[in-house]
Amino acid sequence: MSKAINSGLTDLINQDLIELTSQTVSDALAAGERVWITSDLHFLHTNIIGYCDRPFFNVDSMTDALMATLQKVPKDELILFGGDMAMGNYEKTVELIRLLPGRKILIAGNHDLTRDGKCKLACEEHLFEAVVPFLAWLGYQGRLVVVSHYPILVPETYKNTPILNYHGHLHEKTLPSTLMVKYMNVGWDINHALNCL
After folding, report:
1. What's the mean pLDDT in 86-96?
2. How far is it, in rounded angstroms, from Cα 165 to Cα 144?
3. In what order do the strands lie in the sheet with 103-107?
4. Taking 80 as the threshold, does the pLDDT of residue 14 lie above it?
5. Bridge partner list, 143
6. What is d(CA 168, CA 93) in angstroms, rounded to the nearest whole number?
7. Share of the chain above pLDDT 90, in %
8. Pairing, β 144-148 against β 134-138
9. Residues 6+ apart with CB under 8 A from 40
10. In the predicted model, what is the mean pLDDT of residues 104-110?
11. For the chain, what percentages of helix, strand and coil (3-state, to nearest 5) are there?
12. Residue whose C-alpha is closest to residue 83's, from 148, 35, 128
């Protein structure tokens, strides 16, 4: 990853927004509401079909399938996008995202930033409720839940609260869990569907 993208993700760190957005997700789950999650959609990215062996003939059929699945989310339910929304025509990407129902939150990924580290999607008014580099809250039995684009790296000496890490970036690959971290790849290329937390 380039220094500019690292810097761009760091620039998205706003502690108040991260805490508020994390609390919104935690509150929704505590109230028994459905919260959806997916990652690495790569709208308009023709080459992702071959790279990840996606079952589509072309980018139009992929876009149609992605949109059909995502439009099943009710307008009042939360959907977390774990980064890498698209690669391609920016204006068309914004149009597609605006057509999606649900209360949308973007956890930014490397392909959501320009080469100079700017997250253009963060500037689009009313596109997402929040654009953040990660989310974190205490979940079931006090386990720390972290949502990030990249899988989090935890030192082997870490012996604090167990972590459940919902992540993307790896497409069809998975990471083995450790005693302290349970990795859950929510990327589109794992199950070609939305996941419900």
Report:
1. 90
2. 8
3. 130-132, 103-107, 78-81, 35-38, 195-196
4. yes
5. none
6. 19
7. 73
8. antiparallel
9. 82, 83, 84, 109, 168, 169, 171, 187, 188, 189
10. 95
11. 35, 20, 45
12. 148
- Using DSSP's 3-state secondary structure scheme, residue 189 falls into helix
Q: How far apart are CA 41 and CA 83, in angstroms?
A: 8
SS3 86: strand
Handedness of CA 71, 73, 75, 78 (dihedral sign): negative
Return the H-helix or E-strand segment holding 131: strand 130-132
Dump pLDDT digits (tens) for 115-129: 888 888 887 888 999
Distance, in Å, from the CA atom of 110 to the CA atom of 156, rounded to the nearest integer, reads 26
pLDDT value at 44 more than 90: yes
Q: Who's near 4: CB < 8 A, 6+ residues apart?
A: 113, 115, 116, 117
Look at residue 42 in the predicted model and tell me its pLDDT: 96
Residue 36 has what DSSP assignment?
E
Measured from the Cβ of residue 148, the count of other Cβ atoms closer than 10 Å reads 23
Q: Are 20 and 124 in contact (CB under 8 A)?
A: no
Q: Residue 174 — very low, low, confident or very high, per pLDDT cuts 50/70/90?
A: very high
